[in-house]
Amino acid sequence: MLDTCKLKSACNLPFVYNKKINTAGTSNAAVPLADPGMYQLDITLRRGQSLAARDRGGTSDPYVKFKIGGKEVFRSKIIHKNLNPVWEEKACILVEHLREPLYIKVFDYDFGLQDDFMGSAFLDLTQLELNRPTDVTLTLKDPHYPDHYLGIILLSIILTPKEGEHRDVTMLMRKSWKRSSKFQTQSLRLSDVHRKSQLWRGIVSITLIEGRDLKAMDSNGLSDPYVKFRLGHQKYKSKIMPKTLNPQWREQFDFHLYEERGGIIDITAWDKDAGKRDDFIGRCQVDLSALSREQTHKLELQLEEGEGHLVLLVTLTASATVSISDLSVNSLEDQKEREEILRRYSPLRIFHNLKDVGFLQVKVIRAEGLMVADVTGKSDPFCVVELNNDRLLTHTVYKNLNPEWNKIFTFNIKDIHSVLEVTVYDEDRDRSADFLGKVAIPLLSIQNGEQKAYVLKNKQLTGPTKGVIYLEIDVIFNAVKASLRTLIPKEQKYIEEENRLSKQLLLRNFNRMKRCVMVLVNAAFYINSCFDWDSPPRSLAAFVLFLFVVWNFELYMIPLVLLLLLTWNYFLIISGKDNRQRDTVVEDMLEDEEEEDDKDDKDSEKKGFINKIYAIQEVCISVQNILDEVASFGERIKNTFNWTVPFLSWLAIAAFCVFTVILYFIPLRYIVLVWGINKFTKKLRSPYTIDNNELLDFLSRVPSDVQVVQYQELKPDPSHSPCKRKKNNLG
């Protein structure tokens, strides 16, 4: 290759992108170059404009591939239903020479079918000037239809020499969370470089307060705004505020900070439109490197490419206690460290850092009998351990169906009602990782220090898949802190998947809501039968009870009755007369699973069904979600009283006792007066406080019937017991 001076002189040639780079099929391979070292290519994929429509609805689901020398080095995320997608993704690529151009290809993602080609372009790397940021506009072309206009792709590129680098350096590819299954759950593309940097260095807490004077995007002169946040692969989406240009969100999100110098949070505002793609309102950014730590910053950000402002509170705090180690390094086996952890979460430290509820240690020991994912009859399994938004990974054990990881993961517990998710994937070097199995374990159901074999489940957590995983888990927490945290909103998870429309899911949610409604209907019929004297003894007893209660009624009797109901159900359970029934929900979920499997064989039929209702798809998804919310609300109330989660039921008993005493001794007008004063002065005392409903926050921790089935532990095959395994080894 040319030396640095010759390269700079070559780089002074004019940038003629439309002629030299954008013509599909054009290459600069004939340029004689001999490179003595390596080059680092830092690329930021900005956005696309006026891309080609490939779907029946007049939109596309575009994503971008970068290739060098015929090898794929980067793949972007999918932007759904958008011809002007905004990616803002970064890729760092090491190239051995500049002879091969960078080949950019854009595709439309089609679920279950071959993705549609949307155009391509070449970027001649020899024309880039060293150490200088360059904004590049590439016009997409189709070699078969060279006259068709397919839109443009905007990039920012920096080319820097890496003199003295070894030639066998592995190409660095950004960790890509890509959709790899029919359920579009996230999977991983991993390398050793990524594993070294997966521990975060801090937490960025963002409170989205409000928007001011946003741009009107609807014909009524208003908008239905919502906001998207992105920091690396982490994404959040705010709730939608209907028909307003001055929305009040009052939502809080937490991001992990991986880089010491900070990072850039990309913020975009959108207007929600049912039945068509959402309108872009504007964008802004927050440079975290410019903010001081351990301090809350109020930011009023002007929206670019649009109108209005967004008001945020941003706080950077030190990293939580997360770690990965081998089995030889065990915090709980070290007596001093264990005592320190127990002291940290002792009852005496109730009001010290309320967000730090407890400590979780997970030993990922091994797996057995995993599913075959490769043509060689083996798999390359690795394990992903998740607690809310905290995600850590093991190393990959290559060509093995019985891998041993022997790793210890530690987490800070922010909510004792969180669910630990352990997922096993098969790593593929050239594409997304394959799902092998998953388990979901509520923290409150864990038995400390016990090594257990968990049967791996399918993606829906409704039934078993092949293999078991051996885990040993310890949970230490402060019960008072955990109770207080129950009364504040749950932590939201990163946006990992968009809502999908499913006939089976819609029907299941309808049946769940129908069962909840039928409980109320049956209760109404029962009460009405008392008035009709269908059963004279029952009606007489109801009449006497009515007279007694009305004559002696006091307000404190309401929580007292609920307290008695909880106590009655508790004694039923301990006496062996548990009447909790979820067979119908289990059957519905298993039927969904079977029909989803049938969908794989009849994908074209399913796609045809989706296309027929495309115009009302979002309305159907909204109905589906509303049915789920209503059904879940009723099921959570029921599960509170039938002791599905004892911790929450005991907490409810404590609350009812307190309310009964308060209502008995304090006149109602004083209680209402205190409530009203607090409500009226809340905004004056704390202008940026996030409103919440403690009762709804409590119920959000109670699992619905569907979640109870998902979290239910399956019984392992006796052949997988540790004793049996030892005997087999001896044999």
TrEMBL record:
Membrane-traversing stretches: 540-573, 647-675
All copies of domain C2, residue ranges: 20-138, 184-301, 335-456
Name used for this protein in its record: Multiple C2 and transmembrane domain-containing protein 1
Membership in a protein family: Belongs to the MCTP family.
Topology versus the membrane: Multi-pass membrane protein
Listed GO CC annotations: endoplasmic reticulum membrane; recycling endosome; synaptic vesicle membrane
A single GO molecular function term of this UniProt record: calcium ion binding
Keyword Membrane recorded: yes
PROSITE patterns hit by this protein: C2
Main location: membrane
GO process terms (BP): regulation of neurotransmitter secretion
Record-linked CDD domains: C2A_MCTP_PRT, C2B_MCTP_PRT, C2C_MCTP_PRT
Positions in coiled-coil regions: none
Keywords: Calcium, Cytoplasmic vesicle, Endoplasmic reticulum, Endosome, Membrane, Metal-binding, Repeat, Synapse, Transmembrane, Transmembrane helix
Cellular compartment(s): Cytoplasmic vesicle, Secretory vesicle, Synaptic vesicle membrane; Endoplasmic reticulum membrane; Recycling endosome
